[in-house]
Amino acid sequence: MKEFVIVGSGPASINCAWSIYRSEPRRPIRIVTRDPFVFSKMVVPSVLKTLKNISQFSPSLPPSALVEYGQEIAGIDVDRMIIFSRCREWNYEKLFIGIGSRQKLIPFSGRRIFYPSRVGDMIELRNLIQEGIKRVVIYGFGMVTLELVDILVGLNIVPVIIFSSPYPLSRIVNRDIGDYLASNFSGFIELYASSEISELSDRHIVTTAGVRIPYEALIVAKGSQENEIQGFELGVNEFFETAYPGIFAGGDAVKVFDIVDGVEKYMHLHSVAWECGYYAGLNMLGARLPFRGTLFRAITKTKRFSITIVGNLKEFDDMEVKCKDGEKMFYCMKKGKLSGFFGYGFNVGIKNILREFLRVYC
């Protein structure tokens, strides 16, 4: 039996391997990854806690899977059905590309600059925190910032957040929700909205507004962008097939159909990547199972706040706000249909909300 080869070791790739294994346990599977172990970027900030190594988060792999670590794919020969790194090559019968996304890098020249998706960065920052630093600045306010805030506050550090938009999570929520979030966060973090970093020394940050902010560590969390293989198009159809015979792709590196917005888009979410891997694995085995689409959803639960986000909270015709027992819920409507939900509170359940969206759109 020829091998099925999977490139990448994130959630899309891992679930693709399991999807194949559950249907054909004897099918040889080879996972090729540039990383030293299997992990998901979303768990990397947890290294800031007391855990010794991110490998403790490594998911289990199918018994039939053989992993090639430290091998970054340099190209694909579709005619010969070969993928290759700088020093090795592998033949494939079917190929899945799950190379994911990467954080946007900013060419700062100061000291103690860290990225939350880099394991080494988070280990180094954790060591500094254990040595007693207290002034940590986060640059950017997306979903990963919510997790960083909870971790840092739990370590008795008051996070300082600098972000270019006028309110938090501006790419996901509208101004009303963003202002509500800012008012809730103001009690335990410092916020500098509508600001960029214009100068950076070893001790101070200067914003475009002229504010001088002392810091001991800077975490850059300015979003992510899709990875790519040079010269290779990763567009896929409803079966996660690329334009090349026998080659499939999924996860952060490909666009998926958004059932709420009715368009294809990138969704850098663990849950969406997991779905991609499931469908792709079955279709690699010939199932011809179409992926009808998904929707944006995320939930962040911490000791201090709980946030649930589903659908589109930027473009809508009407919004209804409900308050109950310390919870606050925003329901967005477009063309008479539920199009977005935002909940702030510990009892907001995402399962019931998802059922409502699926009832409307499926």
Number of domains: 3
Give the CATH H-level superfamily of the largest domain: FAD/NAD(P)-binding domain
Which blocks of ≥5 consecutive residues have pLDDT under 50?
none
- Terminus-to-terminus distance: 38 Å
Total number of helices: 6
Strand line-up of the largest beta sheet: 3-2-1-7-18
What is the CATH topology assignment of the largest domain? FAD/NAD(P)-binding domain
Main β-sheet: number of strands, strand sense, barrel status? 5 strands, parallel
Number of strands: 25
- Radius of gyration, in Å, reads 22 Å
The share of residues in helices is 10-25%
Tell the overall outline. Answer: globular
What class, by secondary structure content? alpha/beta
CATH class of the largest domain: Alpha Beta
Task: Please report which band the strand proportion falls in: under 5%, 5-15%, 15-25%, 25-35%, 35-45% or over 45%.
Answer: 25-35%
Average of per-residue pLDDT values = 92
